[in-house]
Amino acid sequence: MAIEFEQKDNYNIEDLISIVALLRTPDGCAWDRAQTHFSIKKNFIEETYEVIEAINKENVEGLKEELGDVLLQVALHCEMEREQKHFDFDDVCNDICQKLIIRHPHVFGSVKADNVDEALSSWDAVKLKTKGMKKQSQSMSSIPVELPALMRAQKVQSKASKVGFDWQNSEGAFSKIREEINELIDAIAHGGSSDIEDEFGDLLFSCVNVSRFIDVDSEEALTKATDKFIRRFTVVEQLAEEKGISMKDSSLEQLDLLWEEAKKILKAD
């Protein structure tokens, strides 16, 4: 027997909240009812990345759909807490509205901020104050460990830079990369696996440092580099098949020739 619900041509946020609540009732959906914050936390991550994919592809209809999926995740988590009488969707909306007002004293208060840098400085100052943070290290520690590693590294480095702990220019950052490469080579030659991992991590961290100086988002850059590799590798496979070459049995020199040919083909396109 279908659950009682008013069918409409157009729905709003109140309808979404109501539908999610109905889905988790005894007469609703067994799957929705069984979910917890932990069981669907990966869904939240997946939906967020699908939003990013729609943005990157400039897919407006896709973006609208994926934002809806993210909003569903928010509504589900809020409903779980409403059932426990902890908070509900309105409480979440209230908290974010208050946060936006408090953290924009240059809009809703008397603080002056005429450009992006001043606005960000104002935001950071209020954030540290409201969270009771007196040291930048506390702000660094508040960055979620769950973030992608490159993104987290870049955020940590940016916070260090705000208190002057940074290279004066990109040359210092580049020199550090050279130093870390040598230390990694030495660790591989003489160290154990933990030393190698440690030095490799330092090298990656130093590469992220350079990305800030050349105004490149390290996460985006690596994503694009990986996509480029896949495109080139796909062409290499096609060339090998056309030429009757077994990639498994080929030398590195033969594969490199195919790689260079693939680069030229893709560049011509």
How does the major sheet shape up?
none
Low-confidence runs of at least 5 consecutive residues: none
Work out the radius of gyration. Answer: 25 Å
Form type: extended
Q: How many extended strands?
A: 0
Question: What's the short story on this structure?
Answer:
This protein is mainly alpha-helical and 269 residues long. The chain contains 13 helices and no strands.
Comma- or semicolon-separated keywords:
about 270 residues; mainly alpha
Explain how this protein is built.
By secondary structure, the chain is an all-alpha fold. The protein is 71% helix and 0% strand. It has helices at 13-23, 30-34, 41-56, 60-83, 89-102, 105-108, 116-130, 136-141, 149-161, 170-190, 193-213, 218-242, 252-268. The longest helix has 25 residues, at 218-242. The chain starts with 12 loop residues before the first helix and ends with a helix.
Helices and strands in order, then pairings?
Elements (H helix, E strand, L loop, with lengths): L12 H11 L6 H5 L6 H16 L3 H24 L5 H14 L2 H4 L7 H15 L5 H6 L7 H13 L8 H21 L2 H21 L4 H25 L9 H17 L1
Helix pairs in contact: 1-4, 3-4, 9-11, 10-11, 12-13
